[in-house]
């Protein structure tokens, strides 16, 4: 099993959800976060004053999939989020040792669906 973590633009959430559903991945967790990478934030003007916005709004997604689904799920996220501009985000993939569905006690890949 794999855990796929993605840090993406806020406006790409619906595209990612649809793209993952298209490849058969139906569960995900989303959290609002703030951060920056290479783009180092941005500058905005407000009432004639310029100020730096160092931490930009992003979304943190987590998806748990079987080993067989992992590459297809990663490609789905990339397809949905890639604009070619700085700030598109990052994806991290890590191994999951076990998963347990609390309600039934199912373990492993069967606990994911």
From TrEMBL:
SUPFAM superfamilies: GlnB-like. One of its GO terms (molecular function) is ATP binding. InterPro entries: N-reg_PII, N-reg_PII-like_a/b, N-reg_PII/ATP_PRibTrfase_C, N-reg_PII_CS. The modification O-UMP-tyrosine is found at residue 51. One of its GO terms (cellular component) is cytosol. GO terms for biological process: regulation of nitrogen utilization. Keywords: Phosphoprotein. Belongs to the P(II) protein family. This is Nitrogen regulatory protein P-II. It comes from Fimbriimonas ginsengisoli Gsoil 348. The lineage of its organism: Bacteria, Bacillati, Armatimonadota, Fimbriimonadia, Fimbriimonadales.
